Amino acid sequence: MPDFLFAEAFTLWGSPTTWLELAAVVIALAMVGCNIREIHWGWPLAIASSLMYFALFWRSRLYGDAGLQIFFAVVAFWGWFQWLRGVRGDGSALHVARLTPRGLAMTVAACAVLWPAMGLFLKTFTDTDVPWWDAFPTAVSLVGQFLLGRKFIENWAVWVVVNTVSVGLFAWKGLWLTVLLYAVFIALSVVGWRAWRLRVAASAT
To answer: What is the DSSP string of 101-165?
Structure first.
């Protein structure tokens, strides 16, 4: 990326905020707004935001979160296709739905397996100083992204957890604008959860 993107735009609580972080925040907010409204253009915005945050997190030695952004960028193409052409198991168009009890159990199990696996990898193969805290939002976000792509309402609960942990992680790294962004994400996740619950209720009547 061009060097000017890493130049200081302003200082927030004693830490420099780069133009790259500022641009990534704006695009990420637009992305979540699209997701709440089920607007498929949120997915290309996710690609752009993810690539920006990859560069930002890598410079901050948050390698798990950096790697996660590449995953997000790739999976965003899949999510975009799902929202445009995806179908349920019965062949009906993809719509907002709840997980079955079995699906919920598999979601929890996936998180329980991915977190320690990711933490061990980061601790062994990188110089990150927060391997387990970096691993948690990385691992759980993988699950949340799948649920979002398939329009399961529980994705918003996953994002509430991920964003809450991320606030503490990014505060530790002094990424204060991103801390504010993820605090807003927590609120937007609650808004999205309520909006999608209303859609499920409306479709059931």
So the answer is: HHHHHHHHHHHHHHHHHHHHHHHHHS--S-HHHHHHHHHHHHHHHHHHHTTBTTHHHHHHHHHHH
